[in-house]
Amino acid sequence: MNKPNFTVVIPLYNKASHILRTLSSITWQKYPAIEIIVVDDGSTDNSALLVEKSGISSLRLIKQKNQGVSAARNRGIAEARYEYIAFLDADDEWLPLYLDEIAGLINKFPEASFYGTSYQIVEAGNKYVDAKIYKPTDNPKGILLDDYFDIASRGDLPFTMSSISIKRCLFTIIGGFPEGEPIGEDQDLFCRAALATRMAYSINIHSLYHKDAKNQASKENVPEVECAFSVRVTASAIKNEVNNKARTNMLRYSAAHLCHIAKLNIISNRFTQARKLLADPRCKLKPKHLLSLYILSWIKQMQKWSTTYIN
């Protein structure tokens, strides 16, 4: 049995409230990580100091000026010494069998270069919620995903950055994370990987995604226009680089993204921008989403009207 060696890459920016919990989840693994690289991306709190004092012998702390999460991850990959790169965000955590599950996927599916597991969401108030993932099978022993775009367009993403590991050579093929894009860099990687390699996947939950964490980019950067990764996916589909079924699923995936950011804009009372997003012809591929968002927009506008004119 192959025993893969893992380097864990953690981008760090002002996560003093969470980083020790994250590091502890690595040291608790049944299957050990050989190397941990934390890239401090110009933190202004005491995050880096906490890492330095953690006492973990396999850990290397690299400091750089603030350049964004993609640059931090790319730096970690460049510094990694081992074949398999496991990612973990500084406010998330692994359950104790995560690396053991990934090692099993690596051995079971040698044709794959990308490996992921399901996850659970931790919301405010320490509330644990299962992600709404469309699962093509209930097989607990692992599968190869036939079509990432189909699965990702039907619900929550099947994995997060903190529940994936990648063979290092894949980065040579597809390149690293896109720098200069404040959000969506994770989905950009998922999309390029899906088009370049087989994806091995476990439906078992081995990672916790903390939406209750402070300083989350997804909360601070609500986009008003389509993210770059979705633009690129749409361009690839239109260029007919894939078969008809795959092309439709890629466009449906981008439609799901448009609906998602339209919802975020509706919640933020940016109704004009939401309407522009929903007017995109691709959104017709998600008719139920489209209808529910128009209803949500109407409700929110009525609430705003009543607050403004009645009170």
Concise structural overview:
The protein is of the alpha/beta class. It has helices spanning about 20-25, 45-50, 70-80, 100-110, 150-155, 170-175, 185-195, 215-220, 230-240, 245-265, 270-280, 285-310, and strands at about 5-10, 35-40, 60-65, 85, 95, 110-125, 125-130, 145, 165, 200-210.
Q: Overview of this structure, please?
A:
By secondary structure, the protein is of the alpha/beta class. It has helices spanning 19-27, 47-52, 69-79, 98-108, 148-153, 168-174, 185-196, 217-220, 228-238, 244-267, 271-278, 287-309; strands spanning 6-12, 35-41, 59-64, 84-87, 93-94, 112-123, 127-130, 143-144, 164-167, 198-210. A hairpin with a 3-residue loop joins strand 6 (112-123) and strand 7 (127-130). The relative contact order is 0.12. The model has no long low-confidence stretch (mean pLDDT 94). Strands 1, 2, 3, 4, 5, 6, 7, 8, 9 and 10 form a ten-stranded mixed sheet that branches. The longest helix is centred in the C-terminal third of the chain and has 24 residues, at 244-267. Helix 9 (228-238) packs antiparallel against helix 10 (244-267), helix 10 packs parallel to helix 12 (287-309) and helix 11 (271-278) packs antiparallel against helix 12 (287-309). It folds into two domains: 6-215, Spore Coat Polysaccharide Biosynthesis Protein SpsA, Chain A (Alpha-Beta Complex), CATH 3.90.550.10; 222-309, no CATH class. The protein contains twelve helices and ten strands. The protein is 42% helix and 20% strand.
